[in-house]
């Protein structure tokens, strides 16, 4: 009897750990991706060149290969597709309507507001005609973002009329539907909550503090998971997380949520029904919580409800982001020395030598990051800083290396 076949949406570097783990468990793997050449093609048993946002073509590939389960655990844009295919084939999934709740920010705002949660004032618009009216109704400062993208693409903070039109056009250019969300800027401390829902019961596996860049407030300079000392706001965070997930309809599966914590309120900003990026899903949460969420997602996709019992005393983890001077990247120095430091789990660069380094317009413009894991917050911050201090770059036209920052 052939081993069961798992369909993984996406075949890029972020899907490689999922494919490797599924294979190690004993499953066969089909991957689909829009690009003709992807690293997971060589690792999987089968692959098809199919856009993971194309519902019908993905469904046909799943039917042709007679899959036993389907997963999209690392990218928002494939979450509705995985849910659609699972629903049509009678396989485990979160449900297509639920997937839309998590991937369309307008729906997300409406549902959480209807459930009685505090949400920022907002409008969903699609044309410049409605732009000024929406801005005047909500009042500056504003956050302008596409309703259906990820990684901060097309997100801007606007302080006055002069930047409004450019922010709208940037958001619209990144919106698959053409809709743009305009909302009030919520003041407070931004956190990330990662976890897993089993039979409607959410388990929090990690709570991280986000520290923004002073000159790019919608982009994080650091994401820090502290150690086991109990947060004074944990009860409020747990209540807001449970209420948000219930409003959006997630009964089983991983989640990655962003909230703003104020003096009295915990305000939902964005919630994804997939794992967090920058190795949060694959490295940080397993270390912090003791739960292999990737394995849990594979089990869920293949019809088994996983047991999720996180460690009672979480460990610490940290992502320290890297910036470089503007210009064309000529050389990177110190990677091996930094990676050799005890506690450094990974050093990742989003850019290669020869590429242009520009302004920090969104999260995807960050050139790279250091991932560190340790038992305590003090240890993990120290490791991150020491690793980053060993890294330097040379830009075209300059005489020598300069430190990353």
Automatic annotation (TrEMBL):
Q: Name one GO molecular function term.
A: ATP binding
Q: What is its EC number?
A: 2.1.2.-
InterPro entries linked to this entry: ATP-dep_AA_Ligase, ATP-grasp, ATP_grasp_subdomain_1, LAL_C2, PreATP-grasp_dom_sf
Q: Please provide an example of a Pfam family that matches this protein in its UniProt record.
A: LAL_C2
User: Which keywords does this Swiss-Prot/TrEMBL entry list?
Assistant: ATP-binding, Ligase, Nucleotide-binding, Transferase
Top-level taxonomic group: Bacteria
Q: Which residue ranges does the record assign to the ATP-grasp domain?
A: 109-302
> What is this protein's record name?
Phosphoribosylglycinamide formyltransferase 2
What organism is recorded for this protein?
Accumulibacter regalis
